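Predict the 3D structure for this chain.
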Amino acid sequence: MNADQREAVRENAKYLRNVRPLDPDEISEYVTGQPHPAAVRQVLRESAVELGLVERADGRFEPVADGPLDVAFDGVAAFPDSCGRVLDERLVERYGPDWPAGESGARIRERVRTVKAAYLRGDPVEYDAETALCYALYHLPDYYAAVQYVLAELVDARLLDRDLRVLDVGAGVGGPALGLADFLPENALVGYHAVEPSEAADVLDRLLSETGRNVRATVHRTTAEAFDPRRDVEWFDADERFDLVVFANVLSELDDPAGVVEAYADALAEDGTVVGLAPADRNTALGLRAVERTVADEGPLTVYAPTVRLWPGYAPTDECWSFDARPDLAVPAFQERLAEAADGDPEEFVNVDVQYAYSLLRRDGRRRYDVDLDASQVARFADADTHVTERVDCYAAKLSHDLSDGGNPLYRVADGSQRTAHFAVLTRETALNDVLGQADYGDLLRFENVLVLWNDDERAYNLVVDDETIVDPIPG
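Done. Predicted structure below.
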């Protein structure tokens, strides 16, 4: 199909899109030379994001519905078998059908160990073809799941529309991309752009073929620093920007992560969200919080969740190792095969824990919790040293699951003004304070009559929640 015919297809689509569903057979008849309907369909697919069209199961196209996404999300139980088969095919192509066994299995397991050790040390990882496959073997399932829990928070707040434009910076082998695609309903339109310079993009390309018909994906094989959406994304302009800019498990690998995030803030729509996602290990989780504080407390963005900034003019300076945890996934077949062929501990090659640190940042100043506090009525964590041994009222976000080791339940809490770590310790549970244990990660709570103590061993403040304390949830 020549350029004039392609333009004629688009013009007909613009005219008919609000009249009736677009039928490639019908549009073909209106175009000079009557190109084959399959060629018309391909032009409509390529222009879907620009025209705001979703493809139906019957092969026709219609405008994507206006309004926020409505997703019935009940957690993630397993990595999809279809994507597992694609990964297995890649492994078979490189190593043969018995890839988990013999010399190839030993090489794969050693590379998995090497990549894991590098991450824990904070060392950079070079993604050649073998490293990319081994990384996918170990990390695809948990990253696939983690991003869906984060997206669910945005959907619950009605912050994602059915017409969604996503920029995935450092997309890697595609765990977050697959999670995003599976999370969204079929009638959502996703203009997905991935930035990935390494050979991980080969795995990503193959896995993107398993996404739905209304995920319009483009992979840009370049670095985060070199990519420019104004030049490299056809539809991008001052009025059309990205609704989501995702940095999943990549910030720890950048030389200037805060600078890169700030640069990409200009690519974000005014009501869009930057999603930062990192593994739960100490180094990467703390690194994510450091980036968050630089770009939000000192830069162009503001924190939506899960951390809070409850006191204007105050920003946190404590060391905040904070992460969420969700139910384990079923062990995928490819990890099971690799583990069964291993000598020693097979669990070394199974990774189904869903534990992750995340940050949601906005340009419009919107926060999950927008409260107006009075320091004469409630205590500020920045002033905790003046309240030791006193009972106070305060507000704080719950930023951990139970951290105790069989003792009194212990939770990290923060109000955004803290200079030192604060923990809520539940010493005596009652019907008036049991919400502390029941609250989800990131929930904001009001503490009434809580005892403030200094824990010299941990160099932290403890908020002692006992039978004299009331804890209430604050609506978001």
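The first strand starts at residue 53 and ends at 55.
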